[in-house]
Amino acid sequence: MKILYGVVGDGMGHAIRSSVVVEKLRADGHEVHLVASGRAVDYLRERFGDISEIWGLSMVMQDNEVKKRLTARHNLKGALSGFPDNVRRFFEVEAKFSPDAVISDFETWSWAFGKMYSVPVICLDNIQIINRCEHDDDIIAGLEDDFQLAKSVVKARTPRAAHYLITTFFHPPLRKERTTLVPPILRPSIVEAEPSDGDHLLVYQTSETFQTLPAMLEQLDVPVYIYGLRRDITEDQVEGNLTYRPFSDTQFVEDLASCRGVIASAGFTLVGEAVHLGKPYLATPVRSQFEQLMNARYLDKLGYGTYYEELDAAAIEHFLGKLPDYRAALANYERQDNQQTFDRLDELLDQCAAGLL
């Protein structure tokens, strides 16, 4: 089967998840052509070779907050050249690849391609849970306007797809048909990792403008491994109890599997990996981004960790004091590999091949 696979480029979680699925599809004999935008392009090109690069929306962040006006200005400027380029890419892809199915990881260009050429579209992402499930009042309390805006935006990205596969570590009731909740899609290195109880905290923070964090961490009486705050380093930099590390996928997974807890934003991919490995999580959700606030509130509600929109040393100490409680709750989480998700995806692709989707 020929599959067009679209990956949104804002945030690396989509690219990481999609690479796992694409490897599975190609191993099964499917012919997959990738289209992607933003940071996903280089990540996927390194792993799969030729892909079609498109323009896509992106967010501007400062001090762990989405800056809405800067984001709007940035995207309007980008659209002036990006949109015409995307139209040209439509016809380039159509000339060389005629897909039997489209898979979209929250990516609109591939969805539009499927709609234009009457090809069934399967959405496979974590974001659609905002629109396609019911959420309790305690999840959206105080965020009602943000929730309604997010729901409208999410619905508009890929409406009326043939089916929606939603990866999730929490399970609210469905409110729409053609929707299946599945476990988080995990990298093979995470599936194979053996959790252990080390002494260190793992900190992952990709916003280099979030410079108040190290001063808080210096006050702790525990070792801290920090990824993301110094992106240009090539070797460990040790400053007291803090170790700044260059990004290495192998080392990161080892540190994650052996840490006492995680401090990071509430991006879905890392939260899902930490929950799978039984690691308590202190989330610092990106402000003005409803999806991260939702993830953080479900994390807290399930007892897997907690969150603070404004982090300080006292909050971190409180988190450390409750680690036994978080570990007890995480012990009840059902760890799974990717097989359940892959089986459901195979069923949907079979339906596409039979003309039933």
Automatic annotation (TrEMBL):
Pfam families: Glyco_trans_1_3. GO terms for molecular function: glycosyltransferase activity. This is Teichoic acid biosynthesis protein. It comes from Persicimonas caeni. Gene3D superfamilies: Glycogen Phosphorylase B. Coiled coil: none annotated. InterPro entries: MJ1255-like (IPR005262). It comes from the Bacteria.
